[in-house]
Amino acid sequence: MKRLALRARIIIALVILALGATVAVGLVTANFLRQTPQVSTAPEMQQALTSALALATRDYESRKDRLSEIESRLAEDNALAARVSHGDQSAIRSLLGPNTSLAVAIESIGSGAPLTKPGVERISGDQN
To answer: What are the DSSP calls for 38-56, one per residue?
Structure first.
């Protein structure tokens, strides 16, 4: 029986080492993922999160539409764009509108009733 060349033996050894390391990392990762807690939320918490996401989405869309409108006005009127870029207060007010408030609006979401249960019901791996 003929022995393999040194080059072939080195290549085979490197492939075996690479496969071994890959399998070891895969097993450690799978074990870590199995032991990571999974959070389950109460229905009230889920509804609050859904409402908050809907409110944030609506706010984002209205701001995006307003900024698109401002962008188109600035693109159409070069003189206004130049005045705004130089910090002219009256130009900025005319662009934003006279009744524009820079205050943050607060909107209540949900019924306002307190949660009857804790927000997080269970974490996987709990012994209950």
So the answer is: -EEE-HHHHHHHHHHHHHH
pLDDT digits (tens, 9 = 90+) for 69-119: 888 988 998 888 888 888 888 888 888 877 766 455 566 655 555 555 555
Nearest to 94 by CA among 112, 110, 76, 73: 73
Task: Look up the pTM and report it.
Answer: 0.44
CB of 110 within 8 A of CB of 51?
A: yes
DSSP string, 87-121: T-HHHHHHHH-TT---SPP----S--PPPSS-SEE
Q: Which residues contact 90 (CB under 8 A, 6 or more apart)?
A: 83
Cα angle 70, 76, 81 (rounded to 5 degrees) comes to 65
Q: How many CA atoms lie within 13 A of 31 on its CB side?
A: 6
67: phi then psi, degrees, rounded to nearest 5: -65, -35
Determine contact, residues 91/5, Cβ cutoff 8 Å. no
Rounded CA-CA distance 21/3 in Å is: 27
